[in-house]
Structures are given as structure tokens and as C-alpha cells.
């Protein structure tokens, strides 16, 4: 088992990474305020892993409620969130109850926001079962739901007590979702960790083949990068750089997700295509060479990811990007690459260059 | 103008109290992140005070959106909250937009929770226009909405940047609502400020007659008490005493509000009847004399408040109280009076005494 710590003062928490962690109740119980949990999962993950997590907890004397939601980004909305609240209230769960998110990013975001707002806040634990959730969404405290007008528009910063990343769960993950997770893994290399990017270029086939050691290394390195960024800028308030850099490719990607309707593209797929757009725009600003854009595109393609955006039209992209949370006072602030391995936030990209970058990278 | 500070480290903020503050844009503008606000108000308050607040802000160069909601506790729910989100997104309000709550406790709770969760948190300012909101709900960062199964079950702790209590707005407040605010004023005397309680006993008629100087004193003293309690226990995590003491009468009161359906009794009215129940239970535990219970009842009655609870039956009370957020691990934790001027939290009141206290204090 590999372990690291997210350093956030009184809100610090450990991340454990390894095989078979799901069933180790002793990793969970020290973090419970009272011996009572509600596990939130979905119809896909629950049949595979819920009992593996719940049975040892029950054997350890913990009362376990199970809340099973439908699967998919389309359900990351108020109605589903309210199903969690309904059950917590019906079960008379109090402020000492810990919510446990067992699933991917959607479950983590929903369960985390439920924990943030149920009775103005209860503890929660992340047990991510997708690569994307293990390397990204389970770490850092971002929680929330979508709104018809925009993704993740309603939510909270709410840090978990513990993240338990069981690498065994990745063996049942659909190939498309594994690839989606790799988009975020590649991101850490691109924005702040060139040696890791080079390691990924040497090991991408091992990752796609789900080699356990390679996955564990990639998850740990990704979490260390994310933990460092989050520790320095917990609430994404840094005016330059900081946590916003984690959004490389995300502003373009959100446009794809929103424009097509949630659930058509996976988040990581949209991020991959968005990352190529960001690289192409960086080239137009004179920061990257054409062969560096190609280097980014090639690595993402080897991960099995789309490297061209959906053909929404540049104007529609800009309209959808205008709703992004990264907009401050009307300016479109983008995360771009100053060079491979170093991202920056930039609010002054000429509109014509943004349009050209989008058009150059669309299907 | 009287001013005091709520000391919460980086989340500290000032409270200004006085006449005519609403129109002083210079008090507001230093607290804005960008020159853009959305004022959230209701159909009763907006015709009276919205222009008084908005016009000077616009004259100072601030872009002002207006979000007018229906009036009443019955609207403190997800649907109304979502109307705020819809408008904020339609107006493309970004993370720098400050939400301003102009109204009573319902508007403050709704607007505050909208601010806590819109794009994972934007700044907000409280401009309370009821006595209850000025002395209680606008200070301390509790925000939220009701759920059919319980009051304030969904919400967040989210501190404002500023509280502006314009005492002039109390001149248009219905008498019943003025009285409801006085229930919380009396509370501060009962739980931690005997000299203030004695002052209230000497000045209750002046307060009911809306004497400006008396009101300003009562508001300032109430806010100072609340600010001290909140500063010591921001997130209500103290296991004994702390912020929970502010809930004197509230657990019984919530049962009345929920049992009758939100909006039948005003919150402060339910708290007044609940406070008498808490005093009566304290007597049964040997902490108060019968004449001290009578002292509490008399002061609340002089404020024009109900001092007997709704006749729901003791069993229904207990059932409804079991859903209260003050329940930790299944035990009913109540705020009671060790003596006049000193409250304690107590989880060991015999059920028979709770039943007897409820029955003794019901209509």
C-alpha cells in the first residue's frame, strides 16, 4: 500500500493506494465520528464492490445504510442529490454519520456535495473506483452537481476524511473509462511534471494494459501532484496559476460536454480533445512548437483518447465557454502551456486565435 | 452608526447598525470583489427597500441584478433556490459577483446558501430587514433550506462579507414579526447575559413601541452576544455548550413549526413557546424555581409572543424532535437553563420529564 497526505491544516487527510484496500475496514473505522455510515454508490458499481466494502464494516460493528443511485453523468443533478437527502432523513442519519462515496467521479461529486450540505455538513470518505476519480476528482474537495445551463455550477469545497483508491477496481473498468482517466494523468505531466510526462511516454502501453505496478505508480504520482496544487490553493482563489492550472483542457472540454448534452462524451474524453485545443492555442501564441503540439496529441491518442473536438462550430464553443467558472469579470481566462511541463493561466488570448485553435482541432 | 466585528480569522466581518444605512453605497462597495452584485429579495420587501439599496449602488458604478422571490417560509426550498441559480446563470454572474440578501431570515438563508453553492461559493452580504434577521439569522453564517422531513436540513456554513442592519426598516415590520425577533433578543439574556435580560425587563414596552434608541441598543447587544458565541464555535462542533446554546427553545420550537407545516407559526413565535418548555423542563430537573419559569413566560408575553405550544400531543413533539440536527448518535440533546442567564446543553433529561414539560406548556 502506498500512502500520501493532502496537507490542509485541520482538514488534512491521507490517500491510500493499492490492491484489496476496499475490504480493509481497519483503514476506515479510525476516521468515523460515530459507528454509522451511509454508502452512496450506483447500479453499476454496487453489484461489484458494495458488499466487499460493507460486510467488513458491519463485522466491525458499523451500522451501514446503502444508497444506490442510477449510473451516469445525466444523473448528477438536484433530483438525484435529493434522493440521497431523502434516504438520510428517512434513516434519521445525524451529524455524526459519515457518507462514503463508492464509485466514479459522479458518485464522488454527488455524495461529497450531499455531505457538504446535509445538516450543513457531515464527514465523508472517498472510495473511488474509476481511474479518473482515483487520480483527480476524489482528491481536493471539489463537489457538486450540474445545472441545465452549466456543468458543476452548484457545489461546495468539502474535503474528505480519507481517500481509499483500490487499484483492483480498475480491472473491471470499461476501456473507454480507463482512457478517460489517463487524460487527467497526462495532464499532471503537461502542467507541472515533465519527468512524469516522460515516464508516461515510456509506459503508456503498460497503463492501457492495466499493469498493476504501472497503474499504482501513475495514481500515486498524479495524487502527489494534485495534493501539492490543492495544498497551495485549496479554494482556487489564486489570481495566477494555482489550482486553476488543473483545468488544462477543461474549459474547451466543458463546452463539448455541455454542447452535446451531458453523458455523450466522458469528461476525460472531452478534456483530452480540449487539451489538444489548449496546446494548439499555445502554439499560436508562440509558446509551443508544432512538434510539441503533436507530442501532446500523440500521447493522448496512445491512451485511446479522442484528440479532435466535437464539431459544434467555434461560435458555439465560445458561447458555452463564456459560462465557465473560470470567467472572472467577463474575461475568458484559459489554462495554456508556456512549455511542455509548465502551464499558466492566461486571460488575453485574442479571440481570433481561440477561434482558429478550435477550428483546427475539430472533427 | 454602531459597529462591531465578528472575529473569525480570515472570515471576519463587520456588522453596522443604525438608521438610513441601506442607502449608503460607500458602506457596501469596499466589500465587493468586482463591481457586480445580485440583490435577492422578496415581493414584500422589494417594493419598500430595493430601490433604496440598488439606486445608490448603480450610481456608484455597480452593475445590479434583481432577483425577487415569493415571500414566506413555505418558499425556503429547493425550487426557490433554483430560481436564484437560474437567474445567476442567465445573467452570466461569475465567481466575483456578490449576492446581497435584502429581507428577513428566509431571504438570508436562501441567498446565503445560494452564495455558498453557486460555482462552489461566491461572496455575499446580509442586509436584514426584520428584527429576527438583524439580531440572529444574518450573523454567524448559517444558511440553508428546508426539506419536507425537517427544517434547515440542507445548507452550509457560509460567512457574509458584511452585515448592514438598517433600523429604519423595522418601522414597516408587522407587529407579529417584531415580536418574533424579540424572542431571540430575550434568548441572549437568558442564555448568557443576565444584565441584558434585566435591561430588557426594563425596556420591553419601548422595544414594542419601536423606540429607535432602544432597538439599536438591543440589536447591538444581541449581535455582540451572538458574535462572541460564533467566534468561539464557528461550525457548532463544541461537544458541550458553544454555539448549540443559541438553540434555546429551538428544538421544541422546530417541532411546532414542522408539525403545523412551515409558515403557520413564525420561527420566533415557536421559539418563544419552546423557550417556556425548556424553562419548565429545567424546573423539573431542579435548576429553576417556578417563579423563574414565570419570569421567562412573563417577559416573552410582554413582547407579544405566544407562551404556550401548539397542541400536537407530546408523542408527536418527541417524534418531530427526534429529527432535529441537535441529535447526536440517537440521544436527544436539549438546551436548558442551569439558571437565568446561563444555558447548558443536556442529553440526559428523562423522557417522562420532557413529556410532562411539553404537556404543561401546550394550549
Structure, explained:
The structure is a homodimer of 363-residue chains. By secondary structure, the first copy, chain A, is an alpha/beta fold. The first copy, chain A, has two domains: 2-171, Rossmann fold, CATH 3.40.50; 175-360, Dehydroquinate synthase-like - alpha domain (Dehydroquinate synthase-like, alpha domain). Helices cover 45% and strands 18% of the residues of chain A. A seven-stranded mixed beta sheet of chain A has the order 1-2-9-6-5-3-4, with helices on both faces. A two-stranded antiparallel ribbon of chain A has the order 7-8. In chain A, helix 7 (194-208) packs antiparallel against helix 8 (212-232). The longest helix of chain A has 21 residues, at 212-232. In chain A, 55% of the residues are buried. Chains A and B meet through helix 3, helix 4, strand 7 and strand 8 of A and helix 3, helix 4, strand 7 and strand 8 of B. Chains A, B: It comes from Sterolibacterium denitrificans. Chains A, B: Its EC number is 4.2.3.4. Chains A, B: Pfam families: DHQ_synthase (PF01761), DHQS_C (PF24621). Chains A, B: It catalyses: 7-phospho-2-dehydro-3-deoxy-D-arabino-heptonate = 3-dehydroquinate + phosphate.
Amino acid at each position: 500500500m502506498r500512502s500520501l497526505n493532502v496537507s490542509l491544516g485541520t482538514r488534512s487527510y491521507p490517500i491510500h493506494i493499492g490492491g484489496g484496500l476496499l475490504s480493509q475496514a481497519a483503514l476506515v473505522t479510525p476516521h468515523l465520528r460515530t459507528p454509522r455510515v451511509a454508502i452512496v454508490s450506483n447500479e453499476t458499481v454496487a453489484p461489484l464492490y458494495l458488499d466487499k466494502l460493507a460486510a467488513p464494516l458491519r463485522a466491525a460493528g458499523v451500522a451501514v445504510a446503502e444508497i444506490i443511485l442510477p449510473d451516469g453523468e445525466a444523473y448528477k443533478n438536484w433530483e438525484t442529490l435529493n434522493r440521497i437527502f431523502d434516504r438520510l432523513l428517512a434513516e434519521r442519519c445525524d451529524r455524526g454519520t459519515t457518507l462514503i462515496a463508492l464509485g466514479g467521479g459522479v458518485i464522488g461529486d454527488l455524495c461529497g456535495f450531499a455531505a457538504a450540505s446535509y445538516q450543513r455538513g457531515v464527514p465523508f470518505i472517498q472510495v473511488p473506483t474509476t481511474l479518473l476519480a482515483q487520480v483527480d476528482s476524489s482528491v481536493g474537495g471539489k463537489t457538486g452537481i450540474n445545472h441545465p445551463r452549466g456543468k458543476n455550477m452548484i457545489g461546495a469545497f468539502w474535503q474528505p476524511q480519507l481517500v481509499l483508491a483500490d487499484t483492483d477496481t480498475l480491472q473491471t473498468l470499461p476501456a473507454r473509462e480507463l482512457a478517460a482517466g489517463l487524460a487527467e494523468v497526462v495532464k499532471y505531466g503537461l502542467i507541472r511534471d515533465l519527468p512524469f510526462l516522460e515516464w508516461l511516454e515510456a509506459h503508456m502501453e503498460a497503463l492501457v494494459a492495466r499493469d498493476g505496478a504501472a497503474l499504482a505508480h501513475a495514481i500515486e504520482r498524479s495524487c502527489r501532484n494534485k495534493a501539492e496544487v490543492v495544498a497551495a490553493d485549496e479554494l482556487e482563489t489564486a489570481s495566477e496559476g494555482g489550482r486553476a492550472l488543473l483545468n488544462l483542457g477543461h474549459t474547451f472540454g466543458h463546452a463539448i460536454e455541455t454542447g452535446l448534452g451531458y453523458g455523450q462524451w466522458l469528461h476525460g474524453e472531452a478534456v483530452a480533445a480540449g487539451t489538444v485545443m489548449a496546446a494548439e492555442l499555445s502554439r499560436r501564441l508562440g509558446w509551443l512548437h508544432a512538434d510539441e503540439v503533436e507530442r501532446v496529441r500523440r500521447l493522448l491518442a496512445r491512451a485511446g483518447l479522442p484528440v479532435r473536438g466535437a464539431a459544434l462550430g467555434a461560435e458555439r464553443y465560445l458561447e458555452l465557454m463564456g459560462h465557465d467558472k473560470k470567467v472572472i469579470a467577463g474575461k475568458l481566462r484559459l489554462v495554456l502551456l508556456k512549455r511542455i511541463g509548465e502551464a499558466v493561466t492566461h486571460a488575453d488570448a485574442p479571440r481570433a486565435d481561440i477561434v482558429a485553435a478550435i477550428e483546427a482541432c475539430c472533427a
